[in-house]
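quick one before i forget lol
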Amino acid sequence: MSLIYDYHHIISKPPQSMHAWRQTDCLSITLNYYQDNRPFLEPRMLNLGPDGCGKSLSEFPLMQYGVAQLWKVFGQHEFIYRAIALLLFYLALLMLFKIMERIFKDSLIALVGALLLYTSPTLVYYAGNFIMNSPALSLAIMGLSCFFWYEINGKKRYFFVFILLFTLAGLFKITAMLTFYALISLFLLQLIGVRLREEGKVFKHPIINAISMLVVVFVQYLWYAYASEYNGIHNPNYFLLSIYPLWSMGEAELTETLQAVDHHLNWNYFRYSTLIIFLTLFAALFILIKKVSRFYFLLLLSTFCGAMAYVILFFRALNHHDYYVINLFIIFPLVFINVIYVIKEGFPRLNKSFLLPALLVVFLVHNTDFASSRMNDRYSPEGNNSSYYKYFKQYNGLGEYLSEIGIDKNQQILSLFDNSYNNTLYLMNRKGYTNYGIGQQPHIIEQKRRFGARYLVLPEGNQNKDLDRYLKRKVGQYKGLEIFEL
């Protein structure tokens, strides 16, 4: 499947295509750890921000810090970052397959159930990418798999691994805690006497279970409180550490977001017909309620309720950010587990026939074909990747040219064509400022000069009259880019 998705070529590509903006935010933090030996809890980006120091963070920077240490050994290569993210996803699929194989006692059905996640165009695109949503989902899937093993055999070691994995998942992205909080709700139901299983208890060590889960919640609180304070001091308005709720939107913005979500539903999340099939199967579980596993169904139901709450609380962000829903995709294997359980328990003839696995394999191939075509579009110069080939590819190699003409890495750069935060700065490997928050306004440019900006980079023909005063001393030209000394 990875070969079909062209990952053998993608894995060595620099950041590009959809959301290169957020990709280079993560990479610029990694680059600062690599080049400047930044303290772990004081990450910086290449964009020096409103106070000129560049300090800013969002997710727990373990991935960025770890990749930076590998870069110190093997050199700066984006494929190391992509490979680690992709291997985490592979491991998550492997663990999901193994637990489904144990539940269903059927390897082929378990394999299809796990691999269906790898047919979401959104997830295929971000699985080997630089944004932390996919690694967070991978850790959550691994954590959930460990909890299922604990539920089956009661061994504490599986529960403690579950705790560790969800701690990391939540630190990477708080939305990865969706199923964890669903399990907390089930734990509370068990405490008040609700039977979660037909026989025995799901949470077999209540005191240990309660203390461990509270520790996870407390760790999340500590980290996000620190991140909020850190950003509040240095760069308070960049990374989102609060909600973007539905009720904060005006009518025009709501209409635009609904149209964007409709596009994502048709082209990005999964094949549209697949979404309809899963929604239909989810609804069918209520009709076949007497045949479901009480624990699996309650876990699915509470996770689904949490997902709907998340959509309401972050609806405003769903317009341009397809990756915001990645951690909701954990619902799909939960639906699959419930449906196959019902088939095995309630429809033995279908379960024993060749028809079920044959249909599942055809379904998997059908969805893989769709994801492949969407990946081709995301990396096509004529598709979603057109802006990279047209505007940003020329910045690759600019850093070496700047060094050749005497502009070393200690010199701050203004990259005023770039409206993102770190894109061109990362591609040229220079600290400084982009047009984000500047808008080519002379009085803000003067402020950045006082902070230490010394050179200006612009594509040929992109100057406006307000910049004339800064274009007197041209010191270099590289692939259609002009460099001026301020």
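fyi The radius of gyration is 25 Å.
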